[in-house]
Amino acid sequence: MIVANPTTPIVLPAAEMPLRVTPTRAAYSELQQAYEHFNERLFADTLPHCLITLQREKRTCGYFSAARFASLDGSTTDEIALNPAYFAAVPIIETLQTLVHEMAHLWQHHFGKPGRARYHNEEWAAKMEAIGLMPSSTGRPGGKRTGDMMADYAIAGGPFLAACEQLLTARFQLSWYDRFPAIEHVVTGQWSMATQIQGMAGTTPPMTAVPALAEAVRPVGQSVAAPDGGPDTVQPLNKSNRVKYSCTGCVDRVSVWGKAGLKLICGNCQSEFVGD
After folding, report:
1. What's the pLDDT score for residue 217?
2. Is the N or the C terminus of the chain less surrounded, counting Cβ atoms within 10 Å?
3. φ, ψ for residue 231, nearest 5 deg
4. Nearest alpha carbon to residue 165 among 41, 29, 28
5. CA–CA separation, 153 and 136 (whole Å)
6. What is the structure's pLDDT at 9?
7. What is the distance between the alpha carbons of residues 185 and 18, in angstroms, rounded to a whole number?
8. What is the predicted pLDDT for the residue at 203?
9. Average pLDDT in the 264-275 region?
């Protein structure tokens, strides 16, 4: 019989060691949990796994990139990127909305026929509507269903909101937020049916409930620099009252400036201009 020395530490095999909940593990495991939940509830568990990343792309909530990563064994996987600059500024449901928007692109890449480049075609729009997200060029009712620059809003009583309610009542959360959020996303206004539902978990922006986030936010019009010297978190007011409008159809993104509220149509492609 071999008697263990009580002063010798016992080293467990790696497979038996408890996982330490580090910020990286927590943040990415939560996003993976959300991906798997929506894959099962909205896509019949047909989507392949992908690599979810956090990317600070300016003025972009997220994007999908097909077969963007390769492994040493020669296989490839798609990427879904989410912009953490918006996590604290919008309700959790709207962050999940961005994730599902990009999952619809992943679905179309594997099972449909994607449009050219960044174009969101009718097949994609129909899939979005089927899973409970209404595509809209303005992010509000009445916007165009297809185009290069597309937003969406949650359909009241639709599958997406039902899936969100199931997920958020299962103690799901996003544990980590950027303390210097992109507040301009709230100022410009992202319209969502989810934010109109009273009492539903995930419909309140985290920055309104978490002291450490609220302290980092200043009134609109006051420019606040991040401690690392990064970009301002709150954009100064546009004193000229002019808005930049860009064509949603032209490849070269023709842009014009004008007062807020203009309704413009491109003379080349007859597409709508949208305000940036």
Report:
1. 55
2. N
3. -65, 155
4. 41
5. 7
6. 47
7. 39
8. 86
9. 75
- Output the six-digit token pair for 261: 């509220």
Residue 204 burial (CB < 10 Å; 0-12/13-18/19+)?
middle
Number of Cα atoms under 13 Å in the Cβ half of residue 244: 6
Q: Interior CA angle at 81 toward 77 and 85, to 5°? A: 165
Instruction: State the Cα–Cα distance between residues 203 and 82, nearest whole angstrom.
Output: 19
Task: Identify the helix (H) or strand (E) that includes residue 219.
Answer: none
Residue 62 and residue 52 in contact, taking contact as beta carbons nearer than 8 Å: no
d(CA 88, CA 99): 15
pLDDT tens for 135-147 read 999 888 899 999 9
Q: What is the pLDDT of residues 110-143, one digit of tens each?
A: 999 998 888 999 999 999 999 999 999 988 889 9
Q: What's the pLDDT at 225?
A: 41
Residue 237: both structure tokens together: 């007011």
Side-chain half-sphere CA neighbours of 225 within 13 A: 4
Overall residue count recorded for the chain in this entry:
276
| CA-wise closest residue to 159 among 49, 40, 32 | 40
Confidence of residue 228 (pLDDT cuts 50, 70, 90): very low
